[in-house]
Amino acid sequence: MRNTLLATVSLAAMLVTGAASAQDGTIKVGVLATLEGTYTVLGEDGVRGLKTAMNEVGDKVGGKNIELIIQSTDASPDSAVRGARKLVEQDKVDIVIGPLSGSEGIALRDYAKTQPQVTILNGISGAQETTFVDPAENFFRFNMDGAQWGAGLGEYVFNDKGWKNVAAVAEDYSFGYTNFLGFAHGYCDAGGKIVERLWVPLGTKDFGSIIAALPDDVDAIYLGLGGGDAVNFLNQYQQAGGDANLIGGTIMVDGTVLSAKGDAKKALIGTPSSGPQADTWDDPKWQAYVKSYQDSFPPDQRFPSPSLLATGYYNATHAAMQCLNDVKGDLSDGQKSFRQCLTGLELDAPNGKIVLDGNRQAVGSNFVIEVVELDDGNLATKMVKKVDNVTQTLGQDEAEFRKLGLPSRDILECS
Amino acid sequence: MRRFIEQRPIWSVILFCLAAVLIWMIFAVWPQWLTSLIGRKKIFLNALFNGITLGGLYFLVASGFTLIFGLMRNVNLAHGSLYLLGGYIGYGVASSTGYWILAFPVSFFVVGAFGVLLQFFVFRRMEGQDLRQTLVTIGISIVMADLMLWIWGGDFYNINPPSWLSGPIETFFITGVKRSTGEFIFMKYPIVRLVILAASVVIGFGMWLLLNRTQIGMMIRAGVDDRDMLSATGARIQLVFVGVFAFGAGLAGLAGVVGGTFQSIAPGEDIRFLLASLVVVIVGGMGSITGAAIGAALIGLAEQFGSVYLPTYAVVVTFVIMVAVLAFRPQGIMGKA
User: Fold this and answer.
1) What share of chain B has pLDDT > 90, as a percent?
2) What is the per-residue pLDDT for A175?
3) Which in A95, A394, B5, B66 has the greatest CB count within 10 A?
4) Where are chain A's structural domains?
C-alpha cells in the first residue's frame, strides 16, 4: 500500500516537473554518446566536443535556457534506440544530438521516423545508408559519411606516392565497406589495382594469419581497422617483421589509435590517410577551435588535440545552437522554422564550411593527411591536401552512383 | 595408447593417416596442385603456428578457470576481469621498471593475492550455493570493469617486449623454393610468439607434474573427485581451496601480461577472454587440465584457420565446434560423465 502511494506521488511529481520545464523557457537537448564498452574513449571525446561548443555559446540560447541530458550507449544499435527512447519518451527532450557509431545511426534514422516531433542531429556516425537510403525528415547529419572521408586519398596515393597496386585488410561491417569505397573510388579511377581484399570480423584481436596471407608483391597495404583491432594489427605486424607501406582508413589514424600506450602505433608514422580533419592544420579557425578545446579541459582529461569525434559533436552542437538563436528558441509547429534553418544553414565549421544536401547530409571538405611525430613524441596528422565540396556521391551523378550499389565487400572491382 | 589402438582400430588408422598428412604438409615442399587448391604454404604454416600460440594464451586463461571449477564447483565469471587486471598491472610494471620479464611474477602474485581475498571474503561465505556464487561473480566482474575503466581509462595498452624478442626469426620450416636460384625459402616467425608458446607448454607441463606427481596434487585430485571424503580424511581442504584459487587467479593475471604483449589490453577484453575460456572449458571438459589444453589448441586453430580459409564464417567456426562437442560428447572431450 505504502509503495503504491509512493509510486503515485513520485509519478505525479515527475509529470509536474515535466510539464513545468516545457513552459519556463527551457529547451531540453538529449545527447547520445558511447560512454561504455569498447568505444568509451571515443564517446568521451565526443562529449568533450559538445561541451566545448556549449562553453562557446553560453547556457542561454535564443533567450532560452539549454538543459543537457547525456545518455550513454555502447555502440550497439539497440542501446542507441533504448537511449533515444529514454531521452525522447521519458525526459521529453526537444532535440537529440548523437549517435556516434555507424550502425547506431541507421537505427536512429528508423527511430526518428516514429518521433516526428523531435529533431535529431547526428553526432559523428558515418554509415552511408543513414542518409542515403530512405532518409528521415527529422534526421540531420552535419558530418560526412565514411565514403566521403575517403575522398582524395586514392588519387594522392596513386599519383603522388606512386603506389600502383595495393592489398586491403578492412573490417567486415557497414562502416568498413563505406570507408573503403571512398578510397577505392578514387584509386580505381586513377588507374590503381586492388589485388586482394581481406575482410576481418569486427573485434578480431589476432591477425597473425591475416598478416601471413598478405601478398608480398604489392606497393602498399590499405588498413581499414579501428580501435583495439588497429592497435593489435600494428603490434603483430611489427612482430612479424612487416615493413610494407601502409595506407590508413579514417579511424585507423584517429586520436584513439595515435594515443594508444606502447610502441605499436609508431608503425603508422608517415602513413597517408584521409578524414574530416587534420590535427595540425594551420587555418586560424581550426587553431582557435583546438585552443578552445584545450582550454575547456585540463590536459590529463583530454587528448592533446580534439579527435574527429569531438569535432563531429562540436559541429552538430554549433549547428543546433546557431539555428535556435536564429529562430529565437521557437520550436512550435513541429519545429518547422528550426528545421528550415538547419536545412539552409551554411555552417562555418573549424574543418571547413559545411552545407546540407537534399537528404540533410553534409557536403564539406575532406583532408588527405599523413601521420607525423611531433616534437613532444605524440603522433598527429598533418594535412597534405584538402578536397572541397565532397558530396555524398563523391562528385558522381546520383543515379550513376546508386548503380554502383551500396557499399559491400566487392564494390568497385579493379584488380 | 596401446589400449586405445586395440579398442578402436579404425579410428587409430584414421588418426595416424591424418597425422602423417599433417606432418608431410608441414615439412614437404608443396607441389603446384596443392598450392592452387588451398593457397600458399606460408599461409598454412602461419595459420597452424598462430593457432597453436593463440591456443597457448587461451590455455593459460582457461586452465585456472577449469582448475577452480573442478575443485570448488564454482563458476568464477570474474575470471576475465582477473585477466584484464593482470594485463594492466603488467603494463605498469613493465613500463615503469623497463623489465618486461618482471611483469610476469608481479602480475602473478598480485592477481593471485586478489584471488585469495575473493576466496576468503566472498566464496567461502556461500560455499555450495552455485547460483549465488555465479550471480555474485557477475556482479564483481561488472564492478571491476568499471573500476579499471576509472583507473586506466579506455585507452589501448601494449606491453612492449624487450628488443631481442621483437621482430621475426627465421625457422627451419620450408615455405617454398625460389624460382630463380632454387634456394629454399624459410618461414619467418615472430620470436615473441614462440617464447609465449614455449612458456605455456612449460607451465602446462609443470601443472601436470604438480597434479600427478606431488602430494598437493594428490589432494587436489582427490578434492575434484570427492570433496567431502577428502575433508573427512583430515586434509585441510580450506587451505587447498585458497591455494588453488590463488594459483588459478595468478595464471589469469600472467595470461594478461602475455595477452598485452602480443595483442592489447583494453576494456571489453575481460568479457572476450571469459567467453573464450568458457568455450575452451566446455569443449575440453570441465575440471580437466588436459582437456583445457586440447580445447584451447582446437579453438585457437579454429580461429586462425577460419580467419584465412573461411573469412566470412570465422566467428562461427568456434561455436560450431562447441555445438558439435555438446551434441556428441556433452561432458567435453576429456570430461568425466
Assistant:
1) 33
2) 85
3) B66
4) 24-144+285-364, 148-281+366-404
d(CA A334, CA A332) in angstroms, rounded, equals: 6
Q: List CB contacts (< 8 A) between B268 and chain A.
A: 37-38, 228
Q: Do domains A24-144+285-364 and A148-281+366-404 have the same CATH topology?
A: yes
CATH of domain A148-281+366-404: 3.40.50.2300
3-class state of residue A242 by DSSP: coil
Surface of B (85-104) touching A: CB under 8 A? 91, 95
Report d(CA B248, CA B242) in Å as an integer. Answer: 10
Residue A202: all three cell numbers together: 569486427
- Please choose, from the candidates B65, B64, B81, B79, the residue with its C-alpha nearest in 3D space to the C-alpha of residue B267: B81
- Please identify, in words, the CATH class of the domain defined by A24-144+285-364: alpha beta
Nearest-CA distance B241 → chain A (Å): 33
- Give the integer Cα–Cα distance in Å for A239 and A257: 18
Residue type at position A21: S
Q: Is A251:A226 a contact under the CB 8 Å cutoff?
A: yes
Tell me the pLDDT tens digit for each residue of B103-121.
999 999 999 999 999 988 8
Give B277-332 pLDDT, tens digit per residue.
Answer: 999 999 998 878 889 999 999 999 998 998 888 877 877 888 899 999 999 988 88
Question: Count of A–B CB contacts within 8 Å?
Answer: 133
Kind plus residue range of the DSSP H or E element containing B219? helix B215-225
ipTM: 0.82
The CA distances from residue B78 to A101, A123, A317, B271, in Å, are: 28, 34, 40, 9
How far apart, in whole angstroms, are the C-alpha atoms of residue B151 and residue B205?
A: 36
